[in-house]
Amino acid sequence: MFDVLDPDSAQGQVYRALTRVGRSDVDTLADVAGLSTSDVSRALGELADLDVVVREPSGWVARPPARVMSELLRAEDARRTALWRAGAELDELYHLARHAEGRPEVEPVADLAELFTLTARVQERATERVRWLDRPPYRSSPARFVAQESLQVNRMAAGVAYRVLYHRAVYDDAALFAGMTRMIERGEDARVLAGHPVKLLIGDDRTALLIPEPERVGAEGSLVIHASSLLAAFAGLFETLWTLGVPVSAADPSAALSEQDRKIITLMAAGLTDEAIARRLKLSRRTVVRRIAVLLDRLGATTRFQAGVQAANRGWL
């Protein structure tokens, strides 16, 4: 989002060029920004999606920077507020579900074996869509992961739409990341969120499988929720979290990485400080700090170490 204001990003360079020259076309902007026409066209499309620039019959026009910055900050504040509210709602639903045990629409899961069986059953019985909040820890064997992929591919081939919201930890494990990529290539619609505390699988609007405390041993606390207002509330929560997730593409995630960013993240992963990276690349420390912040956000990482691991998994190093 904030690449718009970053003078070192393609979005930032194109936006700055457009604010300088006024109404313009792709070729002129490419000359002013020093970028290829394909890079400019891609950046303009992204900027238009953010409502930062407008395409008119006579050319591209930039919206006023002060207004753009204000709207970007408001959007980020709104996103953080929505995430906080979703977390609070999730906590409330968790307690409601626990207190609903014993009612016909809520059944406890006996053990891990039953949990695995139910996971498959919810997908097998879905005829329209499967919605999934996925996060670690994972207790499945490699063979079970293969079986799950096969089941999902078959269900998608049968016309069942899968939307999966992954925890950002998917980037920390090469095998999990590869599995996610394979499913996206077969038709899964995937997004990544910085963190969600539960596992939730919803088949159509009929059945949900809730694992409210994934860190617990076995299936303790897990629940099957049948069609009810409680299931509808969990489905609504999924939709809220989905809007906050970052879309994931099966395309090579390093394709749009600039050479400068590649050098920065390589040196960062090697353990160099911001100052050392700046000296090595002949950049200002401010530029390095800003680009690292953008890269951390893009990787969904909170630490430099985590960013290095995730960059390696993506093939950026």
UniProtKB/TrEMBL annotation:
Annotated Pfam families: GerE
CDD domains listed in its UniProt record: LuxR_C_like
Membrane-spanning residues: none
Molecular function as annotated in GO: DNA binding
PROSITE patterns membership: HTH_LUXR_2
Xref: InterPro entries: Sig_transdc_resp-reg_C-effctor (IPR016032), TrmB-like (IPR051797), Tscrpt_reg_LuxR_C (IPR000792), WH-like_DNA-bd_sf (IPR036388), WH_DNA-bd_sf (IPR036390)
Gene3D superfamilies: Winged helix-like DNA-binding domain superfamily/Winged helix DNA-binding domain (1.10.10.10)
Protein name: Regulatory LuxR family protein
Organism: Actinophytocola oryzae
